[in-house]
Amino acid sequence: MTSGGDSPGMNAAIRAVVRKALFHDLDVFGVYRGYLGLMEGDIQPFHLGSVGDIIHRGGTILHSARSEEFKTSEGQKRAVKQLQDRGIDGLVVIGGDGSYRGADKLVEHGIATIGVPGTIDNDIAGTDYTIGFDTALNTIIQAIDKIRDTATSHERTFLIEVMGRHAGDLALWSSLAAGAETILIPEIPYDIDEVVKRLERGTKREKKHSIIVVAEGVGSAIEIGEELKIKTNLEPRVTVLGHLQRGGQPSGFDRVLASRLGAYAVELLLVGKKGLAVGLEYNRLVHYPIAEVLQQEHTIDESMYELSHHLSI
Ligand code: ADP
Ligand code: F6P
């Protein structure tokens, strides 16, 4: 099952789960439309061909959904019944932290569930990277590179809003990779006057353009742009990248990550494990209890944040 926001590489993870399970002679089903489809019994038997020709595709062939009803005990019982009626005794949930919360509930209801981290936000503990982060990062870098051409040509300041409801990883990594001058992320409070000072310092040394990357969790880049317009004599332009960051062909890194994590989830189910979240740390496959992963607050690497400042003086 895939759940929550789609991310590039989810299909590669689905393929790995299905193929690894079939390799071990298990019966496999695909659950469509996340917890919503699970409650409604939108579940189909899967075979080798069901996951052919998908490793390179973005999105998720299982579709995804968000469901408020599943957050209730009644909704969860409906979902459990659908699994039990089909004799399904293990479930792999590919999704973000909300999906993990749902998976944890299913564990409480006795379903052997394993979580696979699929979100572009990279905001799940117990793994260095989530599936989709690398692809989204590269999509953002391409966009910033293009905007930089215009910023340079027109000697303008640009604010670029990137995704990350609670996490600044996409903003931080893309800023470093694209050489942005200023980064605003939810993990580190910012002072608009400091941003103004940075811009003024740049102007003094005849820097004609500037790129400010804003993580959506900080607030609206449009509003921050308005504030800057009032506090400076600049005419900043704002680009909100929005949902073009979530789709697209998964990168090689995401395909490999997804293949390894999906297969590992099946291996854990085969040895009777449940309630675990898989991840990759220092290039090694790891697993932690889902409940533990959910308790850990997401943090960013502050040394990377400092580095970005040192490199964009
Ligand atoms: P993501 O997995 O990308 O973080 P969401 O936060 O939207 O996406 O979560 C996906 C779905 O997981 C929700 O629509 C809901 O059905 C389920 N979910 C989220 N939180 C809980 C919870 N506390 N209990 C049960 N299910 C939950
Ligand atoms: O969780 C992934 C994410 O892309 C967030 O960064 C973003 O805030 C959210 O999904 C957007 O969700 P929706 O597709 O519901 O607008």
Counted by DSSP, the helix tally is: 11
Spatial order of the strands in the main sheet? Answer: 3-4-9-10
Shape: elongated
What is the H/E string?
A: HEHEHEHEHEHEHEHEHEEHH
CATH fold category name of the largest domain: Rossmann fold
What's the β-strand tally?
A: 10
Question: How much helicity do the residues have?
Answer: 40-55%
Decide which structural class fits the backbone: alpha/beta
Q: Which ligands, by name, code or SMILES, are bound? A: adenosine-5'-diphosphate, 6-O-phosphono-beta-D-fructofuranose
How far apart are the termini?
A: 46 Å
> How many distinct folded domains?
2
CATH-defined architecture of the largest domain = 3-Layer(aba) Sandwich
- Largest sheet entry: 4 strands, mixed
Q: What does this protein structure show overall?
A:
The N and C termini lie far apart (46 Å). The protein contains eleven helices and ten strands. The strands form three sheets. Strands 3-4-9-10 form a four-stranded mixed beta sheet, sandwiched between helices. Strands 6-7-5-8 form a four-stranded parallel beta sheet, with helices on both faces. Helix 1 (10-23) packs parallel to helix 9. It is elongated and about 70 Å long. The protein has helices at residues 10-23, 34-40, 73-85, 97-108, 133-154, 169-178, 192-204, 221-231, 252-270, 290-295, 302-311, and strands spanning 28-31, 43-46, 90-95, 112-117, 157-162, 182-184, 210-215, 237-240, 276-281, 284-289. The protein has 313 residues and is α/β, with parallel strands linked by helices. The protein binds adenosine-5'-diphosphate and 6-O-phosphono-beta-D-fructofuranose. 6-O-phosphono-beta-D-fructofuranose binds at residues 5, 96, 119-121, 163-165, 216, 246.
